[in-house]
Design goal:
heterodimer; A: mainly alpha; 11 helices; 80% helix; 0% strand; elongated; B: mainly alpha
């Protein structure tokens, strides 16, 4: 089993590293957006009740989520390509276990996600981020970020396996993008003025994922935010992995 | 001139028909501006209460102008994607052979992009009014805003056409999209120029899109606007990217489509 995971993960990592288009956008695009929003919305810190001194401290949580969205699309597109190219059919004739195939395939995007998270943290500190949770908090943040990336990557894998079409996976990107925008991404929920928007943001799980990461930076160790952030990330990851596993089973039976 | 108009009309009709009858082409150009408008005007409306933010028509109108100009620009970029697709599937090659006036091809794509801008702009305006946008400007002011939107659309279309005709592949998509995206977002998107901070403020001051968006906001609020510089910049961009697109067309001709 371990050898199988290693071989599939190695293939996934190499496949990812050989395509700059899979590595550069998840790292660069969120940083560009953060840099633009930090300058553009810094005035929002003057609003009464705004929880951070600089917009950078508030906004740096967002790239971790954007990177997870890229992980989702990349994982889904990679598996869809394997379906389209017949690679999965050939694998089905080997003694490869489903779990090894799924875990190994997520290896590449998880690696990109980890590297991206480290880069965001380094860039954040270089830009003057005030990190309240201390060194242990950095480690905990990385764990939460990886959990979130795993949840979204597994979701992408589910879509990729279920549809077997890279185009369909790409078509899901706007949907996830909408979830991100309709969250507490740009302003804290209590400061969202429009009731309907605050309502959506309150019921949008992405808000709690962002707030979990954000809490390490602007509050320190906030038990409620962390419980919600970790809880939702774990639940999403478990559900998505179960769904992806089911889709893989169906896909292998079909072939 | 008659040949130019014939070719432009035919290319425009085909592009409009193709977009109108293909949901996966039509929907992104409609849904994304609506979504940005909802996300910005709804989620960030409290930003209008920041000290120093004194836009008379309110935050919804403030964001409407940005989203309208953004939709116009991206309508042009999406048209560029269509041109690249035409080169990939071989249609553009046949078009180059058949067209008695090839400049009409560019003209046709620009007309198609303008039609897209009209469609999305009308929808956006309707949604904005329904969500309570206050319009302080009169009919002449709104006409001024619409003209700015068309000029933005033409400039973005010509830029994207130049790229598409040089590279002739859909893989050039990010090259068409990314510069437009950066120019748009490095302007005063969320707050007026004076409230921007750091390097974004420095860049926004020299960004050619900033006067366009500020003038557009002056129009919607009915504030006295000195629109001359904005129109001069927009016209200069159209001329510059028009030259870029024509050179791109010559490059495609030299390559045999």
């Amino acid at each position: 089993m371990r050898t199988q995971i290693y071989e599939i993960a190695r293939r996934s990592v190499l496949q990812t590293l050989r395509q700059p288009a899979l590595v550069i956008p998840p790292i660069v695009f969120p940083l560009i957006m953060m840099a633009i929003n930090t300058g553009g919305l810094n005035a929002a810190t003057d609003l009464p009740g705004f929880p951070a001194d600089t917009y950078l401290d508030f906004a740096i949580a967002v790239p971790f989520l954007q990177c997870s969205l890229f992980a989702c699309i990349n994982a889904g597109a990679s598996l869809a390509r394997d379906v389209e190219s017949g690679f999965l059919k050939r694998l089905a004739m080997t003694p490869m276990q489903r779990a090894a195939l799924l875990i190994g395939n997520l290896g590449g995007v998880m690696l990109v996600s980890l590297v991206s998270a480290l880069i965001y943290i380094v860039v954040g500190f270089a830009a003057g981020m005030d990190f309240e949770a201390g060194p242990l908090g950095v480690l905990a943040l990385l764990v939460l970020a990886q959990l979130i990336a795993l949840a979204f990557a597994a979701l992408g894998a589910f879509v990729g396996l279920r549809s077997g079409s890279g185009e369909t996976v790409q078509g899901f990107f706007p949907l996830f993008f909408v979830l991100l925008f309709l969250s507490s991404m740009s302003l804290p929920r209590p400061l969202i003025e429009q009731d309907w928007f605050r309502f959506i943001a309150t019921y949008n799980p992405v808000s709690y994922l962002i707030e979990g990461i954000r809490s390490f930076i602007i509050t320190g160790w906030d038990a409620e935010a962390l419980a919600l952030g970790f809880g939702i990330a774990i639940a999403m990851a478990a559900l998505a992995i179960a769904a992806a596993s089911g889709a893989l089973r169906t896909r292998l039976v079909r072939t | 001139m008659r040949r130019f108009l014939q070719v432009a009309g035919a290319v425009a009709w085909r592009s409009i028909h193709k977009v109108a009858t293909t949901p996966q082409l039509l929907l992104p150009s409609v849904i994304f501006p609506m979504f940005f408008f909802i996300a910005f005007a709804g989620g960030l409306s409290n930003v209008g209460n920041v000290p120093g933010f004194d836009f008379p028509s309110g935050y919804t109108a403030f964001q409407f102008v940005f989203v309208l100009l953004q939709a116009s620009a991206f309508g042009g970029v999406f048209t560029g994607f269509g041109i690249a697709a035409d080169f990939e599937n071989g249609f553009a090659r046949r078009l180059l052979l058949a067209a008695p006036n090839r400049l009409g091809i560019i003209g046709g794509y620009a007309i198609a992009a303008a039609a897209r801008t009209t469609f999305v702009g009308v929808l956006l305006f309707g949604v904005a009014l329904l969500t309570g946008m206050q319009v302080g400007g009169d009919g002449v002011d709104l006409a001024g805003l619409v003209l700015l939107a068309y000029l933005t659309s033409f400039a973005a279309t010509l830029w994207s056409a130049g790229v598409a005709m040089r590279l002739r592949t859909l893989q050039a998509g990010p090259l068409m999209q990314m510069p437009v995206f950066l120019v748009l977002f490095l302007a005063p998107v969320y707050v007026p120029l004076g409230l921007l901070a750091g390097w974004v403020h420095t860049v926004a001051k020299v960004n050619p899109f900033t006067p366009l968006i500020e003038t557009g906001r002056d129009f919607i609020s009915g504030s006295p606007a000195s629109a001359g510089p904005a129109y001069a910049i927009a016209a200069a961009l159209v001329v510059l990217f028009g030259w870029w697109a024509v050179r791109g067309l010559r490059s495609a001709e030299a390559a045999g489509g």
